[in-house]
Amino acid sequence: MRKPFGVLLAGAAAIAMSFAPPAGAQQKIRIGFITTLSGPAGVIGKHMKDSVDLALEHLGNKMGGVPVEVVYGDDQFKPEVGVQVAEEMLKKDQVDIVAGVIWSNVMMAVVPVVTGAGKVMVGTNAGASPLAGEQCNEAFFSTSWNNDESPEAMGQFLQESGVDDLYVLAPNYQAGKDMVAGLKRTYKRKIVEEIYTKPGQQDYQAEITQLRSKNPKAVYVFYPGGMGIQFVKQYVQAGLRDRIPLYSVFTVDETTLPALKESAIGQYEARFWSPDLNVPASKKYVADFEKKFGYTPSYYGAQSYDGMMLIDSAVRANKGSLKNRAGVIAAMKKANFKSVRGPFKYNVNHMPIQDFYLLQAVAGGKDGAHMQIKKKVFDKHKDSYWQSCKMK
Amino acid sequence: MTYILVFEQLLNGLQYGVMLFLMAAGLTLVFGIMNLVNLAHGSLYMVGAYATVAAIDWTGSWLAGVALGLAATLVIGMLTEMVALRTLYERDHLDQVLATFGLILFFNEAVAILFGRTALYMSLPVWLQGHVEIIPGSIYPVYRAAVIVVGLAVAAGLWYVVARTRLGMLIRAGASNRAMVSALGVNVKLLYTVVFGFGAALAGLAGLMAGPIYAVQPGMGEMILIQVFVVIVIGGIGSVRGALVGSIVVGMVDTLGRAFLKPMLASLISPTAAEAAGPALASMLIYLLMAVVLAVRPAGLFPNR
Predict the structure, then answer these.
(1) What is the tens place of the pLDDT at every residue in B190-249?
(2) Which residues 155-214 of chain B have a CB within 8 Å of chain A?
(3) Which of A79, A113, A142, B126 sits 20 to 30 Å CA-CA off B286?
(4) B269 three-class SS
(5) CATH no. for residue B114?
(6) Chain centroid to CA B274: how far?
(7) Of the spans A93-107, B22-36, B169-183, which averages the highest pLDDT?
(8) B-chain residues within 8 Å CB-CB of A196?
(9) Contact B137/B127 with Cβ under 8 angstroms?
(10) Other Cβ atoms within 10 Å of A4 Cβ, number
(11) Alpha carbon of B226 to those of B39, B72, B143, B285: distances in Å?
């Protein structure tokens, strides 16, 4: 059977049309993604990068019908390198938007560079307080949280559950002090002692011996990364796991569980998301992530996945383009995408208004222990700085 | 109660010191005998930890894993010496620092490629878990006690080898006059390789003992290397005896400083001032000590003649 030539031509045109981006759309959306890919913290960067890759796969490598390209940059945990990477992305790679960044100090340096170049920045981890308050920025959106919110949630839980005589440890730098300040905002009972240790310290046996002699009812710590692995292992080896409950923020998560295994069991954490969260978008993210990469994703990854989905929502609302800055900001404010944390709204400071949970590490899973949500601590929580943000 | 507390902190200090000694002994031997500044000593510590984790995984037995891990570090150390370091003995220290810094980058990336960047888990056999009551009322983790015993045993063994054996005699001779030892028909090349491998194995032992209590991750060696350099500067570069004394002093000062400096300051100055100054001063203490030692005895406590 012969088809009339005209039909064939129309068919070809239709196929060609379906590949062509919508009118007014860009040829290609370029996203710069900054994280830490080298050094011990490179594991966090890997969680984030793998999540961005998965988000692109879920989007079919297109946003609003336009092909997407992500340029990755390694900030090496240094603000000055972060700035260099951002400038290179903006000038050489001509990115339309920048996302990522793990560390508050890198974020504080990178945001002015990106927004100063007329682009929008989507922060997918660092929760520096100035960016939520006085230095809030109309071109900055976060898919994570403000630093203080997790400790506030933990403090709230400890306050509600009547824990008294709390012993507090954190590294002696700004974030460590912030995490204790956040705790104190909601926890009003007795703190036996506040100990600040050297950043990067490996051995906590001396501190643990002191702690045991004070016999507190509970211990609260903030020890991110390797410090947390060391503190928790040594705490368990000192025989304190069953005697004094250990509560923490940013210490035990899916990046450190493979190194902690059974010694994590019983640990309490507070945060906005956990792989077992019962939200369809989250379930899909976790299942596909585990299938593709063979390990359990962390909140670092979940936030980065959300970051890509937020950018996608802005591209779709602007008919396949990120060139209209005001349009992008207006679209992002709506948070019109299926977030892994469930539906949420942006506050005036462009920080999510979201729930926080108490988690506990329980036995089971491939690492011998995994995080489980125990209860919701905060419902639609706003950070403590939004009132000093002048944006409306 | 307070006596028990002080006793436990002294034990903690000793344990930390012993760990530092295992690292410092190798580093100071290599410097004293080969005149080589080896920044990559921390990498061998990391290699020891990783090799042991891998070997425990592979054999399924903890003791066999430890033995294999140690042997692997020895071999890797000797290979490193033969391939990369041999050409550096005649060069000046700056070249050595540059080259061994390159080795740090190489080892960190190699480990990250082979094992990934996620910190690894290292198990402990049941008989090393739990606690012992050393004096009544004081419970101490068995593992930490074991570290002290192993460390002191190694120190004794090292003294015996250096002071009482033929190998030790050659090592001492090589340290004081290389040309003469060589002229007397000793294979100095081989001697250097053996000494370097020996030092690497000691670093590996420290690394594998650190595995169950510290985080086994790329770059773990650099975390401890700085303190080890403080130790050998205090003890006198090239002196094993100095390394032992320096290690125990640094371990004690650091541990006791972290435990008791803040309460002590609080009774001297106001508690709020102690709150701020205590932790800062405690983390500076070993460097202050080093500065004082350098001012009084620039060659360290036990200079290597």
Answers:
(1) 888 998 998 999 999 999 999 999 889 998 998 899 999 999 999 988 888 899 999 999
(2) 210, 212-214
(3) A79
(4) coil
(5) 1.10.3470
(6) 32
(7) A93-107
(8) 279
(9) no
(10) 8
(11) 10, 25, 24, 14
- DSSP-based three-state secondary structure for B92: coil
The B residues from 220 to 279 touching A (CB cutoff 8 Å) are 220, 223-224, 255-256, 258-259, 275, 279
* Whole-number Å distance between alpha carbons of A257 and A361: 9
Whether B27 is in a domain gets the answer yes
Closest Cβ–Cβ partner in B12, B117, B255 for A46:
B117
> What's the domain range around B186?
2-296
- Retrieve residue B143's tokens: 């593992």
What does the DSSP 8-state code read for residue B87? G
Strands A97-100 and A29-35: parallel
Could you tell me the residue ranges of all domains in chain A?
A: 27-145+277-343, 149-271+356-381
The predicted model scores a pTM of 0.87
Closest-CA residue of A relative to B120 is: A259
State the angle between helix axes of A226-237 and A205-214 in degrees (0 to 180), rounded to the nearest 10: 50
Instruction: Report the run of H or E that residue A379 belongs to, with start and end.
Output: strand A369-381
Please name the helix (run of DSSP H) or strand (run of DSSP E) that holds residue B177, with its range, or none: none
What CATH architecture does domain A149-271+356-381 belong to? 3-Layer(aba) Sandwich (3.40)
Crossing angle between the packed helical segments B62-80 and B188-210, to the nearest 10 degrees: 140
Which residues are bridge partners to A32 per DSSP?
A71, A98
Smallest Cβ–Cβ distance between B216 and the set A46, A203, A259 belongs to A259
DSSP B195: H
CA B288 to mean position of chain CA atoms: 20
The whole-angstrom separation of Cα B207 and Cα B218 is 12
DSSP state of B83: I
A157 CB contacts (<8 Å, ≥6 apart)?
Answer: A247, A268, A270, A358, A375, A377
Within 10 angstroms of residue A163's Cβ, the number of other Cβ atoms is: 19
pLDDT reported for residue B303: 83
| Residue B266 pLDDT level (bands cut at 50, 70, 90) | confident
Number of domains chain B contains: 1
Cβ contacts from A onto B, under 8 A: 113
- Residue-averaged pLDDT of chain A: 91
Residues A64 and A313: their CA atoms lie apart, in Å, by 8
Inter-chain touch B16–A209, beta carbons under 8 Å: no
Task: Classify B204 as helix, strand or coil.
Answer: helix
Across the interface, whether the CB atoms of B5 and A209 are under 8 A apart is answered: yes
In this structure, whether the domain defined by A27-145+277-343 belongs to CATH 1.20.58.340 is answered with: no
Give the C-alpha separation, A301 to A306, whole Å. Answer: 9
Cβ pair B15, B144 in contact under 8 A: yes
Residue with more model confidence, B32 or A162: A162
SS3 A209: helix
Is A265 strand, coil or helix? coil
Contact A97, A123 (CB under 8 A): no
Contact between residue A270 and residue A238 where contact means Cβ atoms under 8 Å apart: no
Span A191-230, pLDDT tens digits: 999 999 988 888 999 999 999 989 999 999 999 988 999 9
pLDDT at B296 over 60: yes
Dihedral in degrees, nearest 10, Cα atoms A227, A228, A232, A238: 20
Q: Among A163, A153, A224, which Cα is nearest to A185's? A: A153
Instruction: Give A171 to chain B, closest Cα distance, Å.
Output: 10
Please tell me if residue B137 touches chain A, with a CB cutoff of 8 Å.
Answer: no
Query: Closest Cα to residue B221, out of B132, B105, B59, B127?
Result: B105
Q: How far is A100 from chain B (nearest CA, A)?
A: 19
